[in-house]
Amino acid sequence: MADKAIRSKIPYIAFITSFGTYLEYYDFFAGSIFAGTIWPVLFFAPGNIVAATIASIGAYASTYFARPVGAYIFGHLGDKVGRKFNLMLTLLLLAIGSIGIALLPPYTSIGIVAIALLTIFRVIQGLGLGGEYGGGGALLMEFVGSNRRGLWSGVFQSSAAFGLLTASGGVLLASSILSGKAFLTFGWRVVYGVAVIAAIIGIILRFRMSESPMFLSLQQQRQIVKWPASTVLRKYWKLVILLAFSWLYIVGVNQLVVVFGNEYLSNLSFPISFVSLGVVIQGVVGVFITIFSGYISDRIGRKRTLIIGGILGVISLPLFFTMALTRSAVMVLLSEVLMGITTWWGLGVIIALYSENYPTNVRASGAGLSYQLGGFIAGIVLALILPLAILAGHGIIGSWPYVSMIGIIIAIISIISHLTLKETKDLKLA
């Protein structure tokens, strides 16, 4: 159990580490909204909206391919130099990627260069996001006692849902007060780029925060591993894969709902303001469900909590599309409430679970690589398999059975991994 002096720092550390993760996910989810609505129109050749949407989703998903690289680089730094140092660098990358996309000229001005730059800036963001998770989560968990790790893990992870909430809320506000042309021209850019200012503030706050006491102890005892990320891949590679699959249903199914679901609702003739309202509702529910699932994992265990989430993941997409096809605004908004439950349950467990499975000298690397490998697999689904589902369905509207099947398979894979996990909620971090 953490002593009194350390416990007093936990709320502040939780805020600072979650603040950075929130900013990462704010831009991440804003990008997911625009990838299915704005970017196909703005950054790709006109004339074939289906092809433009597929290409836009591919550019968006490029972030997933960069995230494991970011996890390796910044996981190494987090375990070698310190959690605090690399967390400032990850926010810097976020700022660079965000301002680049916010200022990017359209296809009509610079042609195919717009597509190339969009992908490059998304990759830069992916590197930052990849490094953010392992270092921030490890630092927080190393301050927290074992009986409350699930709860604080839920608080940390809820910043992702809060990022979804505020990103979609910003889109809703801007699209409501601006004309369609004004929003397409500059409104979305303001929403997307506002995180740059917050990132600068975050860098300053992180400069002032305390380093992990467990990492400082490793330094004093000269037990720092020379190549921590490489050690994880060599010594713990089976565990990395297993833990990646454990949260695959969350990142995979949730992103199918947020990215493809937004485009699906747009094709059903729902306006972007309504689509954004639905995502806001999902985000509000997601914040509370994430915290609650972390809290409940301190009671019933990480394993049982995740199995419940995997089962909910199986039913998520069929439920969403069935309700969306009624074309009823009430049913669509209700489906977003249900998605806030079914696709966010279990996320609150993840950083606690990962931290408990890796020793302190490789924790940032192990947690980051496990988490981002799951994201990488989800990226393959979005970039390669989802377009095939759209083609098989002869367009966006007809592809929902194929997309639902993708989500079901992802969730079943996660459940299988959950069944093989060892319960870790009572373990003391070492």
Automatic annotation (TrEMBL):
Full protein name? MFS transporter
The parts of the chain that form a coiled coil are: none
Subcellular location field: Cell membrane
| Residue ranges of every copy of the Major facilitator superfamily (MFS) profile domain listed in the record | 13-425
**Membrane topology field:** Multi-pass membrane protein
Domain of life the protein comes from: Archaea
Q: Which GO terms describe its cellular component?
A: plasma membrane
Q: Name one Pfam family in it.
A: MFS_1
Source organism lineage? Archaea, Thermoproteota, Thermoprotei, Sulfolobales, Sulfolobaceae
Say if the entry is tagged with keyword Amino-acid biosynthesis: no
- Keywords noted in UniProt: Cell membrane, Membrane, Transmembrane, Transmembrane helix, Transport
Respond yes or no to whether keyword Membrane is given for this record.
Answer: yes
Q: Which residues form the signal peptide?
A: none
Give TM segment ranges: 12-35, 41-65, 85-104, 110-130, 151-174, 186-207, 236-260, 272-294, 306-325, 331-354, 375-396, 402-421
Q: Which GO terms describe its molecular function?
A: transmembrane transporter activity
Source organism per entry reads Sulfolobus tengchongensis
The UniProt entry, under InterPro entries, shows: MFS, MFS_dom, MFS_trans_sf, Sugar_transporter_CS
